[in-house]
Design a protein that fits this description.
CATH architecture of the largest domain: 3-Layer(aba) Sandwich
Bound molecules: 1,3-dihydroxyacetonephosphate, iron/sulfur cluster
Order of helices and strands: HEHEHEHEHHEHEHEHEHEHEHEHEEEHH
Number of strands: 14
Distance between the termini: 28 Å
Largest sheet: 4 strands, parallel
Strand content: 15-25%
Shape: globular
Helix content: 25-40%
CATH superfamily of the largest domain: NadA-like
CATH class of the largest domain: Alpha Beta
Radius of gyration: 20 Å
Length: about 325
Amino acid sequence: MNLQILPPAASQIPTQDPPAEDPLDLMEEIDALKKEKDATILAHFYVDGDIQDIADFTGDSLKLARDATRVSTSTIVFAGVHFMGESAKIMNPQKKVLIPDLHAGCSLADSCPPDQLAAFQQQLRENGRNFHTVAYINTSAAVKSLVDWIVTSGNAREIIDRVPADKEILFVPDQHLGRYLMEVTGRRMILWPGACMVHEVFSIQDLIRIRRQNPGCLVMAHPECPQNILEISDVVGGTEKMRQFVIQRQQPTTFLVATEATMIHPLQKAAPQHTFIPVPGILASSGETCACNRCPHMARNTLQKIRDCLKTGGPEILWQDYFSKAREVLDRSLLQ
Ligand code: 13P
Ligand code: SF4
């Protein structure tokens, strides 16, 4: 198998940012380049607000994967992380798919290397276990090519209901999402021990303190958070579910948001009647609160890099042989 190797995690690579340029100039330049290069920009809710504001499509992982199939231009620029760009390419083999920074990875995707998954599946088979593998979309394309189903936070329940009742479920890579799905679907699962570096470090003490300081507030949490956070949350859901919830609630409310901090941007834009407070992260080593509620991978996307990738035509996600198998699984899981 010829694997496309993802470069080392963002935190391990020294960065040297180019001098800042005026965001308005960059936006104008991007707009002109989009027309010149026949390109469409897709942006996840976790990238900077400025990027979301100039994107043609914004959304959660599920919506963006579907939007990618509706793009009519010859080029897609995916402002998100590497596995999202890969999924866009898999769904659009004929299109040029660019990502602004090739080092924008994902700690969850990294926690499940394809060779380790294949070895574990083989071990289960040898032990006579009859199972389907269900993967969260936050996985590499090589992993997607080894599984039966792909879920996102937006469709997980529905897909798990499609797994035949006589099959066991091996769920990869997010143990917290898997545990939550066991609870809501009633299905027992074998859980891969992966976790997201952002959602795993919310401070339960700070959350309880801020909740006490804001009587009447509601706590919203992404299902990638550990059980102790979900237990005290009023709303548990992926990013699009959060957005829909705040839009539907007319009564001005204070929401404490336990997900990547940039999510406040689309929430505030969609429902300005509310107040949104990001839940702080905490450093396990020192117990101090930190800015670790920002995903360092998503933060690698900048207006400058979007302009540059449009200008130079790279970095590009290139088609790999295992994308065909991943495409069958993505198609069955997200489009049918
Ligand atoms: P959503 O699919 O809910 O947008 O989540 C994506 C993600 O990376 C969460 O960390
Ligand atoms: Fe991956 Fe977590 Fe970043 Fe989402 S927030 S892209 S799961 S590292």
